[in-house]
Design a protein that fits this description.
Blueprint (H helix, E strand, L loop, with lengths): L10 E9 L2 E4 L9 E2 L3 H10 L4 E6 H4 L6 H10 L4 E5 L5 H9 L4 E4 L1 H5 L1 H11 L3 E8 L2 E4 L4 E5 H11 L4 E5 L11 H10 L4 E4 L5 H8 L6 E6 L1 H4 L5 H8 L2
């Protein structure tokens, strides 16, 4: 790939995961592995200053069913006006979905609910279209549901169901890689692009600028963006450097 400059840009979504009001990172999505990184509003504002166009904002307490950081989420979204926010965590019924949409987020990421309640998910996808992405958290080709603690069925079966429902975008996380800085699962992403024409946002394992370059090479196949978390907090590279490699 010598003509790298001509590859379309990869959209980067720096992640702000919130637990107990603080910005944290987990290892392999497990409750109890949190490392705290301070105030989520500051973290998001810093990403905005460095040029983020999107932020991936997650309410971990809502995702694990142990509480809510709704007021913090709203503060973060207010703080980064002009930056689009993809909101995730615990959105599994009309009430939580409406609250999420009213918070000012540009896009809502459905997780567990899309697996556990397919009729509701199909209805929401039908009603809100582009504003809804579905998060597919994967171990091998088995989906992980409810904060990654349970199996949620076969990836390809569920993907077909979501395709039939008209889902507009997928956020694909390799749970075994997430928070480990071991590199993204390129093979899984390639296979996803062969099975859906819809844009895919990659998540999990990004550890270096080389990983971002490798993901950018998948853009012509259908990988639209990448969520970057732990590598930024661990200081492996800055968001500004990553955006440069991603083609911004």
């Amino acid at each position: 790939m010598n003509d790298f400059a001509s590859t379309p840009e990869l959209v980067l979504l720096p992640a702000v995961d919130v637990a107990d009001g603080k910005a944290v990172r987990l290892t392999q999505g497990e409750a109890g592995t949190e490392t705290s990184y301070g105030d989520p509003v500051d973290a998001a504002a810093d990403f905005a200053r460095q040029g983020a166009q999107w932020i991936h904002l997650v309410d971990l307490d809502a995702a694990f069913g142990r509480g809510s950081n709704a007021s913090v989420m709203r503060k973060v979204i207010k703080q980064v006006k002009g930056v689009q926010v993809e909101l995730s965590g615990g959105i599994r019924d009309d009430r939580s979905l409406e609250a999420a949409l009213e918070s000012g987020a540009s896009r809502i990421n459905l997780g567990t609910a899309a697996l556990e309640n397919p009729e509701w998910a199909a209805d929401v996808i039908n009603r809100y279209g582009e504003a809804i992405a579905v998060g597919l958290d994967v171990r091998g080709t088995t989906l992980a549901a409810r904060g990654w603690t349970r199996d949620g069925g076969d990836l390809w079966t569920v993907l077909q169901r979501l395709e039939d429902a008209g889902c507009s975008r997928y956020v694909v996380t390799d749970v075994t890689k997430d928070g480990t800085l071991r590199g993204p699962n390129i093979e899984l992403l390639r296979e996803m692009t062969q099975r859906t024409p819809k844009p895919i946002v990659a998540s999990g394992g990004v550890s270096s600028l080389d990983d971002i370059a490798a993901l950018r090479e998948l853009v012509p196949l259908g990988v639209e963006g990448a969520i970057v978390g732990k590598a930024l907090y661990a200081g492996q590279f800055t968001l500004a450097e990553a955006l440069d490699v991603a083609g911004h």
